[in-house]
Amino acid sequence: MIETWQALCLALLQGLTEFLPISSSAHLVFPSLLLGWPDQGLAFDVAVHVGTLLAVVLYYRRDLLAMAGGCLRAAAQRHANDEARLVLWLALATLPAVVVGFLGKDLIENHLRSLPVIATTTLVFGLLLGLAEWRARRASAAADASGAGGGASRWRPLSLGVALLVGLAQALAPVPGVSRSGVTLTAGLLLGLSRQAAARLSFLLSIPVIAGAGLLKVLDLIEAGDAVNWAQLALASLTAGLVAYACIAAFLRLLDRVGLMPFVWYRVVLAALLYGVWLSL
């Protein structure tokens, strides 16, 4: 069992990396490999999942309330509206991740959590994120040169097809090092969404995925019947949630100002460090 200060450090790391396109799994290997920390256990995983889930739900509470109201109006009027369509699109886009999560769980857990795999996916999907950012910058520059200005006409609107393709990309996220937020942002930008629209879709898609993963871990925890340090878990959940909320807010504020290239270079450096650790073992 981990110490309370170790739980705080891991919760802080989880909150910092869960929603940024840098892969939380690529960071969480360091404490055990370099510092010899014990496995944090299922209960800890559940706690930080709850914290990060509450963070994104709280940040997008207005959107979620609007979607809930739209679904109620659609049911009462028997006529689809924009909010109800978005809920349907998100549900359908989540299905690929659900299928991969169920069918590929054993393969991922037993064969894809190695250091070389994490280093390689961190690098490859980081470079793909760089390609998506480069194309987004070219699209902006071309629109400005043609006089299109800063309006939304340069970007593709969200549609069912775009949501489904981003959902297919999200199905790769269970592979360690891919980064759920990174791969969905990459897909959204490559499909022509603006950075803000791609980020919003990415964060909204994270809600059912994190909730589903957390539920599965809860069932595993109940089956395992392990002893639980409730005070430590509450502290870890609160820490992860507060840090994740701050990261979401800061990321969205800075996204259009600095773009995604800082995260691309960070992933390249992180991959190099992971390869270095692997070769030194």
Characterise the protein shown here.
By secondary structure, this protein is mostly helical. The chain has one domain. The protein is 79% helix and 0% strand. It has twelve helices and no strands. Helix 4 crosses helix 5. The longest helix has 31 residues. It starts with a helix and ends with a helix. The mean pLDDT is 91.
Any chance you could write out the topology, listing elements then pairs?
Layout: H1 4-17, H2 24-35, H3 42-59, H4 61-77, H5 82-103, H6 105-111, H7 115-145, H8 160-170, H9 180-190, H10 195-224, H11 230-258, H12 261-280
Helix pairs in contact: 1-2, 1-3, 1-11, 3-10, 3-11, 4-5, 5-8, 5-10, 7-9, 7-12, 8-9, 9-10
Main attributes of the structure:
single chain, 281 residues, mainly alpha, 12 helices
